Amino acid sequence: MKRLLITAMICAAASGVFAQDNKSDSTNTTSDTTKQHNWSSGRHHIQTGFGDEYNDENERKAHIYPKGSFGLTFSRFDLGLATLVDNGSFTLSPQNQFLNYRSWKTSNVGFDVIQMGVRFSDAFKVYLSGGFDWTLIRLRQNITILPNQPVLTYRQDNIDYSKNRFSSSYLRIPLSFDFRSKENADGKRFHFVIGPDAGLLLNGRVKQISHENGKQKIDDDYHFTKVRYGGFVRVGYGGWGLFAKYYTNDMFENSPAQKGLKNFSFGFTFGF
To answer: What sign does the CA torsion over 6, 220, 108, 188 have?
Structure first.
């Protein structure tokens, strides 16, 4: 996880520098850049940058709407806390007590790497994006969630784990409705983004660290739901803000004891 965060920050910094170079280069190429953003020209634009800065620069030069865009990006980097909601309660029911977790070490991380969209005006844009999303549950108890079981099953261990993490990773596919204000004197805007979010399961993992067994990683689907769906909201100013995500279907499937257990996340988001 630490390697993931470091890689993400390096990508963000590199993308920001690249976007700044693109801004400087675009000063004398307004007509070409406008064509690149316009699908009707028959040319496709591959976008790299942190958030929407590259688009903003070109939109100031050609206010022709609607306009479409498609490209690579590093945007909407979410870093926050994950919470389990058990049939509407933040307190786990008796059959789910084995999932009791450390609240401040149970996290959600995600970001988008590709997007396509249409800007209908300076204030409103719709875009479909794709990226990755991790939910990392830090378990309190010394247990092992067992792979390849007919239902979600655990084993009580006589080992004191210094880390016992139960996680899932998803390919996320959010559809965003982005409302933004006019630029202020500093060239920044307020953003309000809302929409549905779907996810396809990539894998589940148990990661444990102990004196007896060292570091262990066991991959399985662990009955995490194959396709999850829900909604999200992001509110921010400039390049950062707050996010909240709630998935309306259950976290686990084909495991009746976990029926009604859902996932809610909130925290900071960077790159609109």
So the answer is: positive
Write the pLDDT tens digit of every residue in 174-198: 999 999 999 999 999 999 999 999 9
pTM of the model: 0.81
Tokens of 53: 């800065």
* Spatial CB neighbours of 30, under 8 Å, sequence gap ≥ 6: 58, 61, 62
Report pLDDT digits (tens) over 133-170.
999 999 999 999 999 999 999 999 999 999 999 999 99
User: How would residue 59 be classed by pLDDT, with cut points 50, 70 and 90?
Assistant: low
Q: Specify the pairing of strand 153-156 against strand 67-86.
A: unpaired
Question: Which residues face 209 on adjacent strands?
Answer: 163, 215
Distance CA 228, CA 243 (A): 18
Q: How far is the C-alpha of 134 from the C-alpha of 112, rounded, in Å?
A: 12
> In total, how many domains does the chain have?
1
Residues in the chain: 272
Is the Cβ–Cβ distance between 137 and 103 less than 8 Å?
Answer: no
Chain centre to alpha carbon of residue 172: 7
Find tokens 């809302």 and name the residue: 194
Structural domain harbouring 150: 2-270
- Residue from 18, 60, 268 nearest 183 by CA: 60
